[in-house]
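Backbone shapes recur. Consider a single case.
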Amino acid sequence: MLRVAPDAVMIHRRLAGLMIRMGRPQLAQGSLRQLCRSGDVRRPELAALISISQVDSSRPIGPVAKARQLAKQHDYQGAADQLASRPPTQYQTPDVEAFHTRMLAELQQDKMVEERLAQGRVDQQAYPDYWAALGIHSLRRKNFEAAISAFSNAVTIDPTDASSIQRLSQAYRTSGKLQLADQHHQRFRQALKTIRLSNQIADSPSEDTMQELADALDSLDRPLESVLWRTIAASRQSDSADQVRALVDQFSSIAQSDNAFPPSSLPDAKRNILLPDSGKTPDRSNQPRIASSNRSYDWPSPPETAVWQNIAADVGLNHQFRVAKEPQSKAFAIYQSLGGGIAAIDFDLDGRCDLYCAQGAADPPDFQSDEPNPLYRNIETQVKDISQWAGTGETMYTLGVTAGDWNQDGFDDLAVNQFGSVVLLTNRGDGTFQRSVLLEKPTTWLPSSIVISDINADGLQDLIALAYADSEEIWKKPPVNEEGRPTYLIGPASFAGAANLALLGTPTGWEDDFDEIRASEETVTDTSLGIIVGLDVGKTIAGKNASDVQVNSIFVGNDQQNDRLWTHSNVAQHGWEETAMVHGCAFGSFGNPSASMGIAAADFNQDGQEDL
């Protein structure tokens, strides 16, 4: 029918709807764009173009559509199972086959992915899922140039594929092409913004949100979609006839131009990427091998059963971290999702473990709480909160706490990372603590973890204070609909990060001021949460007796940004070296940030080396 009437609106509308219901949105894209060019496009159809690979239907048809829904929820195993359930005798269309390969790539099924990429039909290369699968697989093989080429093809065919844009940015960053990495990271954030605004419009339409969405689409070189959203917004306003006429004129000049949409196909020259040979193991002879230990250990056998019992109530441990002054069960601001830390400390040297707990229970902008951080003293079979008597009851919203003997007098002290300040509580040795404010910050500064440790191998204790962000945006709670449900979540992409800070120890105490942890002139703004100090990555410095001294490396986990591995260096210009990429711990297994939060270190594979 389209051959006879290629501009027929009804046919394009029916075809696009059917393809979306069948889980084949890439085949709906052409018809949706034609509806836009005609000017006869409905708001849900226009919204479907925001992220074409993520669009689904409330009335799915068949296993492919169900697989698309599962993939949208990041249930890649469920999606792959749905795709594998199709009869083997059924004709497998190239777009669905490419989608299946991408799901297997997400699941790290390397051998199957290699075979499918090598044996797949050439017509699969017309679909972004094929190139996304190749890009993911190339990242796992450490072939970053192939990954860059593959993801570039994926986002050329589908400029709305935020996942591939993000991975392209990380591939550029790993290859040292930082300017291109930053450009694509900004593009990724704008793509996420369009998805968020579109979801917000679907839930609660407003003219301001539509105008904001149009601005974001303009920044992504999608002018026709932008002018259509502006027209919808203007038509909802009274006395907007002149504005609508101007937008109609603008639409007429854009609709039939070649620049109405980004290109969605590849020139043949861009498809020439080396593919893996079927059934052959990649040649890794020139790649460094994973070091293995020659040491042997007599590891104890694990117990056959492990039994855990919650005895908190029995011993009087009644602490509960509160995220606000009043009880709150939904629509959390970003700082409310992070929880609070706990420090294990034997502050009275009686051989029993005491606990110092962070408490929130406060609201912006002052973050002043009526509930102080409790210090639970362990008294044989019970614990008792003695914070008021000990002088440890900090009343600012606290996230990070740690214990360590900063002045090396034999008594562990406490450090607190809270809204507004970093505080040291020095153990006097008589059961009480002396309070010192080490750093004052505005309450737009979102603190996170804190640690006391010797990081430069000088035998003196140092202090590391991490931060997640520095912006008033951290106070914002997500908007909710009439049912009280958030229409979108405020995540780390909504604001810039913050610099992490170090305070080095000296023979007469700590230095006067914190220094930013950075390896160059530029401030490193991360969204840091977890920290592990003491990893052995072979970093040494010259000691006093001409012998090398091991330096404690610091692993910092960042939310939706690459993780960091810092070592303090007495030869580096700014005192720090960052080597996470070199050691392979900057990104997750797909070469993209893994949203690190809580971290533990242990010898997982029993080779004598600590793992994360």
Notes: Residues 268-272, 277-296 have pLDDT under 50 and may be disordered. Residues 178-203 form the longest helix (26 residues). Residues 330-528 form a domain with the Methylamine Dehydrogenase; Chain H fold (CATH 2.130.10.130).
